[in-house]
Amino acid sequence: MEKDNNTQSLHHSSRREGKGVGLPLVSIIMGSTSDLPVMEKACKLLDDLQVPFEVNALSAHRTPSEVEAFAQNAKSRGIKVIIAAAGMAAALPGVIAANTTLPVIGVPIKGMLDGLDAMLSIIQMPPGIPVATVGVNGAQNAAILAVEMLALSDEAIADRLWHYKDGLREKIAKANKDLAELKYDFKTN
Ligand code: AIR
Fold this sequence. Notes:
Elements: H1 5-17, E1 26-30, H2 36-48, E2 53-57, H3 64-74, E3 81-87, H4 92-98, E4 104-109, H5 116-123, E5 132-133, H6 139-151, H7 155-180
Parallel strand pairs: 1-2, 1-3, 3-4, 4-5
Helix pairs in contact: 2-6, 3-4, 6-7
The structure holds 5-aminoimidazole ribonucleotide (AIR).
5-aminoimidazole ribonucleotide (AIR) binds next to β3.
């Protein structure tokens, strides 16, 4: 992990800037640092909405006992939601979900087969062990879903989330203004 430049810079900046924001509420876990370019979108969203989070790599296949220990201890450490990302035979979110009562959001990472392998591995959980699965590479949506869960019991977070969603509405209002400028002989608006 220390050899990976992306991870190192993320690690350093969170150590530098994350002091004093309190304990993490969201834990982002990825199967490999090769998933980081996708998962940085989740980090950015949580940062923008001022939600304390941690980010680590664990693999259901390469470090199975560490995954179990992480999942079993997450709740007592104050974590409220887990976002777990993996590609290929993506067992990580399901194994975490099997070892905690916290909600687990799974992010299928596109590697082979356009990410269909990972998506089906994450979404097709047996009855009793659900994983809330977002689309392939849907890291940003995973973070928004996590924030929506936190917003159920935190008004300040709910306010920031509302502000974020307002921004999306404004974006479409602006898009429609731009589209109104398009000139075609048979365009009626
Ligand atoms: N992976 C790692 N352990 C188990 C799985 N399924 C996934 C990672 C990554 C892919 O395998 O989540 O998406 C390739 O990992 P790497 O480390 O070879 O780049």
